[in-house]
Amino acid sequence: MKRIILILLMCATILASCASQPPVTPAPTFTPKPASASTPIPLKPNATQAPQFIDLRSGGFSLAVQPELEFETDDYSINLSDKGGELIISLNGKPYIASIYTLESFLDKYLAEMASRGGSFKQSDPYEISIDGMNGIAIDLTGNFLEAPMAGKAVAISPDKDFIVFGLGMSNLNIHKNGWAESGSVIFEALIASIKFKDEVKRSNWTLIKCLK
User: How far apart are CA 141 and CA 150, in angstroms?
Assistant: First the structure.
């Protein structure tokens, strides 16, 4: 759990600065694992156990966490990993100054900071996603981080003009070369699909939509 605690602390630093003012600070730590000599076993969701419902008090959302994931939370964020260290996921909610960042420029700065900490990424063009009825963007990632090959996805959604939910999931491909495609992305998509935004962070958007109708 020490690795997850470190991720949580570093993400809290991001949330304190990146979401509210221009400077960006460190992204989640991704610790490379040596390739195993044995045949890797892909992560698979455990259908016999129910997901655990997690409510982030000040993060603006709740979600359901699959039983095969370890996690820690604070009021604003949840940071997860599988037990083997192949998959890391970080999701965060924080007040947001839309006049400073668009969703795309926010993700660009978030990923640029990761690259500056030892990464080299190829990014897809941003594309639209919808979570709990709210539109956002996602970017697919491939490349290396801390000398380990990785693949993953970053997302950002603003359920209110003054609030943003953002994060990423990524798999260490040293452990399983098809880990993201075969299992990591499935777990990540299930996790973000379970997100429910709190009424207080959706209220302004719903008011605007009603006024436009």
Answer: 8
Interacting residues of 211 by C-beta distance below 8 A, sequence separation 6+: none
Across the chain, how many H-helices and E-strands are there? 5, 11
Contact 82, 149 (CB under 8 A): no
CB atoms within 10 A of CB 128: 9
Strands 134-145 vs 119-123: parallel, antiparallel or unpaired: antiparallel
Lowest mean pLDDT among 5-9, 58-62, 86-90: 5-9
- Three state DSSP letters for 107-164: HHHHHHHHHHCCEEEEECCCEEEEECCEEEEEEEEEEEECCEEEEEEEEEEEEECCEE
Distance from C-alpha of 29 to C-alpha of 6, rounded to nearest angstrom: 7
Lowest mean pLDDT among 27-36, 83-92, 106-115, 159-168: 27-36
Confidence of residue 138 (pLDDT cuts 50, 70, 90): very high
Contacts of 90 (CB under 8 A, 6+ apart): 7, 11, 28, 77, 78, 79, 80, 167, 168, 169
d(CA 134, CA 136): 7
Helix (H) or strand (E) holding 172: strand 163-172
Query: Rounded to an integer, what distance in angstroms lies between the CA atom of residue 74 and that of residue 23?
Result: 22
For residue 12, pLDDT beyond 70: no
CATH of domain 2-19+48-212: 3.40.1000.10
Query: What is the pLDDT averaged over residues 80-97?
Result: 87
